[in-house]
Amino acid sequence: MGKYFGTDGFRGGANETLTAIHAFRVGRFLGKYFSRGKRERAKILVGKDTRLSSYMFEYALTAGATASGADVYLLHVTTTPSVSYLTRTEGFDCGVMISASHNPYTDNGIKLFNASGEKLEEHILNRVEEYLDGGNIPLATKKEIGRTVDFVAGRNRYLAYLLTLSRTSFRGMRVGLDCANGSAWQISKAVFDALGARVFAIGVEPDGTNINANCGSTHISALQALVMERNLDVGFAFDGDADRCICVDERGDVVDGDGILYLSARAMKNRGELEKNGVVATVMSNLGLETSLARDNIDLLRCEVGDKFVHDELVSSGYMLGGEQSGHIIFKKVSATGDGILTALKVMETMIVNKCPLSCLVEGFKPIPQHLKNIKVADKNAVLKDETVIYTLEVARKRLEGGRILLRASGTEPVVRILAEGADDALCSEVVADVERAVLHVGEVL
Length: 446
Hints:
The chain is an alpha/beta fold. It has three domains: about 5-150, Alpha-D-Glucose-1,6-Bisphosphate, subunit A, domain 3 (Alpha-D-Glucose-1,6-Bisphosphate, Chain A, domain 3, 3-Layer(aba) Sandwich), CATH 3.40.120.10; about 165-360, Alpha-D-Glucose-1,6-Bisphosphate, Chain A, domain 3; about 370-440, Alpha-D-phosphohexomutase, C-terminal domain (TATA-Binding Protein, 2-Layer Sandwich), CATH 3.30.310.50. The protein is about 40% helix and about 20% strand. The longest helix has 16 residues, at about 425-440.
């Protein structure tokens, strides 16, 4: 991770850690960098979520890019995966999504994609950071000044693409959607309506300040209540920029990213689509996923947390399916990034083709006890390097005997995460508490 860009873009408090000046300068760099040696202007695609500050960052970044001579195409409110898809299919030099994903509305972020719809390469991000710290780029003048183009039609092209991915009608299915008052609030319902489902949607009244507020994939209880009250077949919750999906089955039980990977891997294997018979997951995925997949002779390869790392591992391994427990799922054949709506469509298709409810599809997935604690801290690196913390972790590993414990810094928030899992639920809870006490003694906790 760099000074500004973490595992999922440049993220922080709006006009605090991430300011409009930062957005302007990112735009200035992108506009110039992607115009180098070109006879035609650079084409940059920009989308945003529903946060109050997203308009400010959209306009600031657009001003910067056009001031450097690029043409900027505005998707307006849209999803992160739509920016990825349209960047690679519509001939853009790069794509930009303004969103802080699952974070509260007070935060925002800038995610960058290359022409292939993948997260922008590290060496280019390093150059962006160098420019943010004081670089100089000449302004475009006269006919070299770029322009903005309304590209709302791009959303419809993405929606049409999603519809082509479903191999079955959803007619007769009762589906709940929690759109987190974010990017999915229009697109997701339109897709499910078009496929014939009867849709019950919540989190579809964005006001700029309620994105992810007690709704969406990080606050699943609202969707659970909807599924039970309306007697629905299934529910899907997205995060603020709709690159995550968490499911709720017909009984009101949560099916997270691990469960989605499990049922998707088995379905793909049955169809002969699981290349090399393997799946990519992160170090945060439950050990039970590994053992459950092994019963079907499916291998699990682990990587660092972040859908960027999942994608990189998919490319290097040749596997076709990967994801995170948090609900970022990548179906590599059809997407270069996590896509919550696409994931929901895949789960629906598997339910319908197999003629069984979601609870049946995950029946063979047996997670082991897992405890996760998130702690906001002022200095993540100080925590990771502290001798007392390191010693406490070693003691915890010995006590777990065959289980595991992890301490890692979030790549998108000022948070360290403690994860313990093993056969003994009480022991997992106990060792997490021990490590938490050690972390709290290091320094300032936010």
